[in-house]
Design brief:
about 20% helix; HIT-like_sf; single chain; HIT family, subunit A; about 20% strand; Histidine triad nucleotide-binding protein; alpha+beta; binds guanosine-5'-monophosphate; five-stranded antiparallel beta sheet; globular; HIT-like; Histidine_triad_HIT
Length: about 120
């Protein structure tokens, strides 16, 4: 089990592995998903290594709010004018595969509901 500072996303933040980064600020990084599930599939992550949403604490409220505003900003930046979906997979039953909180932005096509 990698430590929270040794996930693939921590390595992307540290520029140890490449990613197609579309936005960055002091608190957040956004980059294209390597295995896109829609024409636009971007991940927004905190630079602070919160492992998953259920591990967040009240002191994380600023960064959590910032992540949602970053989603909005990135969606506008990439031209998702017809809408988009924001997904957080939290834990095993949701299929979370990287232990660093990440918000998926999915768009560029009509999306089905409910997800599987
Ligand atoms: P999860 O299943 O945990 O909600 O989402 C993890 C996402 O990270 C997946 O959509 C997967 O394609 C993406 N991902 C995993 N490894 C990498 C990587 O090295 N680079 C990028 N850009 N995305 C990755």
């Amino acid at each position: 089990m990698p430590s929270e500072n040794d996930t693939i996303f921590a390595k992307i933040i540290r520029r140890e592995i490449p990613a197609d980064i579309v936005y960055e600020d002091d608190l957040a990084l956004a980059f294209k998903d390597v295995n896109p599930q829609a024409p636009v599939h971007i991940l927004v992550i905190p630079k602070q290594p919160i492992p998953q949403l259920s591990a967040a604490v009240p002191e994380d409220h600023r960064v959590l709010g910032h992540l949602l505003l970053t989603v909005k900003r990135v969606a506008e930046q990439v031209g998702l004018t017809q809408g988009y979906r924001v997904v957080i997979n939290n834990g095993q039953d949701a299929g979370q595969s990287v232990d660093h909180l990440h918000l998926h932005i999915l768009g560029g096509r009509s999306l089905q509901w409910p997800p599987g």
